[in-house]
Amino acid sequence: MKKTTTVISHASRILIGLLFVFSGYVKAIDPLGFTYKLDEYFESLNILFLSPFALVISILIIAAELVMGLCLLARIRMKLVAWGTLLFMSFFTILTFYIAVKGDVVKDCGCFGDALVLSNTATFLKNLAAMPFVMFIFFWRKNYTPVAKCITEWIIVTAFFAAAAGIELYCLRNLPIIDFMPYKAGTNIPKDMEYPEDAQPDEYKTTYYYSKNGETKEFDDTNYPWNDSTWTYIDTKSELVKKGYEPPIHDFEIQTEDGENITEDIVYSEKFTFIFILRKTDRADISDIDKINEIADYCSSSDDFDFYAYTSSSFNDIEKFIEKTNAAYRFCLGDETTIKTMLRSNQGLMLIKDGNIWAKWSYQNIPTIAEIKKLAATDFQTAVAGVKAKERNTTIILAAIALVFICFINTKKHKS
What we know:
Elements: H1 2-28, H2 31-44, H3 54-74, H4 78-102, H5 120-139, H6 150-174, H7 189-192, E1 203-212, E2 215-219, E3 232-242, E4 255-256, H8 263-267, E5 272-278, H9 289-300, E6 305-311, H10 315-325, E7 330-333, H11 336-342, E8 347-353, E9 356-362, H12 369-376, H13 380-410
Parallel strand pairs: 5-6, 6-7
Antiparallel strand pairs: 1-2, 1-3, 4-7, 5-8, 8-9
């Protein structure tokens, strides 16, 4: 019996550890995405006073989740981690139950970032299924054998936290290690905007309000008295009851400052087109704006390149930005949510051609003219393969380092 219980305890530890590591990692590589999700929570729950701290809260929650997962796998500080895991899972199980029942808090909880989007109900059921394993870890917490002395384990915990925070800060500065967003390199924008012929449309429930003899009644599509003159029409309301198919890219529109829609001109252009994504010009870092201006100048002198700035800023803020930076390129307007989805940074570059997204750069990694010429000289598949290889190799290296370290730690039998 004891042997069976021991096996279950370690299986629970490994299962929940892997769950926490996966959930923490996919958010750690996109901390800005989880920050936007927290903003949705704060707005829906009417706790907007927390919004200024959303990024810091995001970084801390993600780091805590990733560290707890690594500690579970490595059997580090198990008594403390068992408490932390129980409190963490209990809070989010209650929260996901609330949003699953309420229905209109957030579209999805964001527990796996954009790597794996679950419905609110599915997320709650996932948390509910994990709770027995979490409870087993908690009640068995005193029976896990320490792997090192107390001070050594705390050094390891600190190293885990530093690694988690380091990944987050790196991705904040350089864009996510892996891009799970619809506008990732390799995407064909027109294709991802299409609706399949068998796509299910949104389903709505329409309610009609009519009054008669001072009494107002509700009707539906099957029985409303549209041809009965004894009833007086009052109002009509539509409620979404089932969400239909939504293409990966939607609500994508590029307008000039005069209101002209030039989306198709840019998306279907056979030229290489740089889009300088600038979510808010009043928050822009202009320390390296000369690099942007140099690329814009190169594009204006080339028959093979175009350059546009794309922002959700006001006309007044755009004018101030142009004055400060001597920007000589055309500014276009778009939806802020779309811009957030296109690039996980306030500013950066995207290169497209024939509707295909070739590459994306954060403001910290603006390419040189030589690098641009080299990229343009290759083919689309090769360019995208390079991006994917970098994503894959970075993740494999990080996973290998973590796996080797955890396996090494788990061979230790020292008493604390």
